[in-house]
Specification:
Blueprint (H helix, E strand, L loop, with lengths): L31 E5 L4 E4 L6 E3 L26 H9 L4 E4 L23 E3 L4 E3 L5 H11 L2 E5 L7 H12 L5 H8 L10 E4 L14 H18 L4 E5 L10 H12 L5 E8 L6 H5 L2 H19 L11 E9 L21 H16 L4 E7 L8 E3 L4 E3 L3 H10 L3 E3 L2 E3 L2 E4 L13 E5 L1 E8 L2 E8 L6 E7 L3 E12 L15 E8 L3 E2 L1 E6 L3 E10 L1
Helix pairs in contact: 3-4, 3-5, 5-6, 6-8, 8-9, 9-10
Length: about 525
């Protein structure tokens, strides 16, 4: 998490190189077209694209996943209604414990008998940290919801020795002090944490222990050395750019970190939050294109560094978008601190933007191999609680649909559709950005997996359905196509306790015998998933 705002400018490269070729034409001229060729492959979709994030912030942990004394919790303090909703979200990997929080977090405070753990001032988000939920509790929780734990070490006020000791506590079976301490604490077998990030947003001046790129790279390299000597098979994620303010140079940060750590790390972490501060629907719904632009820029940097890297038989560095979301309503002095911080309430247009992010990850599946939506419960989250129960926010449903269905090989689809022009991209606060022409009304991704094709389509048009021909260029569509739709009465539709206005709806199946073309009218302001077979 970051305490900052950013302005986004969408440059002329945004629509290039992503398989989208969109021509403006009169609505009555012809149907839009989505051409699918199962031989035009982008890359394999990694299961870790469907990750999430748990930070000690507001009510994400305390009052969210963990609430001692609640009638809705078990004897370990775990909220069972939240547990069930998290399991149904199919979260593949979960980052913990921060975020800004981690840059002043000392993991030893959160282990051992709970009544003996020291409460601490939590400086990032201005609250008291009781430390009653820590390493072992999170590992237990991860097992219960079926997610892979992903830990972030303190590279701010923490030391490289502290990072090494945490790896020892988690991953060494027996012998050294911290492995034996874990056993003493009731965990005879190691936790085997595979994924570790080397700090959080260290390029940001808001970060406790903020470093410049050179100093961060030196500290990260030495921490990585100790951590890998302790547990050689772990995967390491470097802190990439998160500061896109006008006076920052995120490309310089990324270039330096990639150059210095190209033989060391396995991923570069990028972060992005967007918002609709000026209530401009068409600008807001286009913001995932900015994430896609940043992805391509970093991909080029990685390719350059991999030419001279000494990585043995290890894969190249990949991108981890390990924080992304919509965050702008709960982003002022009254909503960014304390026990009720960052409690954003989402509507339908937010759900469509989240779908746009997911489509962008699929279209860049060759380089993006991890993504963690921030966060799981209450704090800018798909699940929201009170003392009596939960409700699932609008953004829950596209996250769930993708995680349960979109796997296999990402396809480079070709789209012809109407377009529109944007004026501004008002992310956070500040000055306007440049105008961008030719944003497609249809935002599309597709995957192919053992004969099954999944097509995910956002119709960005607020008012009109778009009749679209889906054309198979290699093989034919066959059998019934399942149709899932996330929509609502209007773009501002929200869910709440006792009210579900936006959710996934099973629509009547498309009856397809065998055909090279099927036609479907995508409703206005909607996300539609089509699921069926292609046979050769």
């Amino acid at each position: 998490m970051k305490q900052k705002f950013e302005n986004i400018k969408l440059g002329t490269r945004t629509l290039m190189g992503v398989g989208l070729v969109c021509a403006t034409f009169a609505a009555s001229a012809q149907n839009a077209r989505i051409k699918i060729d199962i031989d035009r492959k982008i890359g394999e979709v990694d299961k870790y694209l469907y990750g999430n994030f748990v930070e000690h912030l507001g009510r994400c942990v305390y009052g969210g996943i963990y609430e001692e004394g609640s009638p809705l919790a078990d004897d370990k303090g775990i909220r069972l209604d939240v547990l069930d909703a998290a399991k149904d979200l199919n979260v593949s990997i979960t980052r913990y414990p921060g975020g800004n929080f981690v840059s002043n977090y000392h993991w030893k405070d959160g282990i051992g008998p709970k009544d003996q753990r020291p409460p601490r001032m939590e400086l990032a988000w201005a609250r008291l940290e009781s430390n009653r939920f820590g390493t072992d509790e999170f590992v237990d929780y991860a097992k219960r919801i079926g997610t892979e734990p992903y830990f972030s070490v303190n590279m701010g006020t923490g030391t490289i020795e502290e990072a090494q000791q945490w790896v020892e506590y988690c991953n060494v079976k027996s012998g050294p002090y911290y492995a034996e301490l874990r056993k003493k604490n009731g965990y005879p077998e190691p936790h085997n944490i595979k994924y570790w990030s080397l700090g959080n947003e260290m390029d940001g001046f808001w970060q406790m222990g903020h470093l410049n790129a050179e100093d961060y790279s030196k500290k990260a390299r030495e921490a990585a050395k100790l951590m890998k000597l302790t547990s050689p098979d772990i995967k390491l994620i470097a802190a990439g750019s998160s500061n896109y303010r006008p006076n920052a140079d995120p490309n310089e940060w990324n270039a330096t970190v990639l150059h210095e750590l190209r033989d060391v790390v396995d991923y570069l972490a990028l972060h992005m939050y967007v918002g609709n501060t000026e209530n401009n629907y068409y600008d807001f719904i286009s913001t995932p294109l900015v994430l896609e632009e940043r992805t391509r820029v970093v991909k080029g940097m990685i390719e350059r560094e991999m030419q001279n890297a000494d990585r043995g038989n290890r894969p190249p560095i990949y991108i981890a978008w390990d924080e992304y979301n919509i965050w702008y309503r709960a982003r002022n002095e009254d909503t960014m601190a304390g026990t009720r911080a960052l409690e954003e309430h989402y509507n339908l247009e937010d759900a469509l933007v989240i779908t746009g992010f997911l489509n962008a990850f699929i279209r860049n599946a060759d380089i993006v191999k991890m993504a963690n939506m921030a966060q799981l419960v209450n704090v800018i989250a798909p699940i929201f609680t009170n003392e009596k129960g939960i409700f699932k926010q609008t953004i829950y449903y596209p996250l769930q649909l993708f995680a349960k269905n979109v796997h296999g090989t990402a396809l480079d689809v070709h789209v012809d559709c109407e377009t529109y022009n944007t004026d501004r991209f008002p992310i956070g606060l500040g000055e306007s950005a440049t105008q961008q022409n030719n944003v497609p009304f249809l935002d599309v991704s597709a995957t192919y997996n053992n004969g099954e094709v999944i097509v995910c389509v956002v119709n960005r048009n607020k008012d009109k359905a778009i009749s679209t021909d889906l054309i198979s260029q290699e093989g034919q569509f066959s059998g019934d196509f399942e149709v899932y739709e996330v929509n609502g009465p209007d773009i501002k539709s929200e869910n709440d306790f006792g009210k579900t206005t936006v959710q996934t709806v099973n629509k009547p199946a498309l009856k397809v015998k065998t055909a090279e073309k099927i036609t479907y009218a995508f409703p206005p302001h909607s996300f539609t998933m089509l699921k069926g077979k292609i046979v050769k």
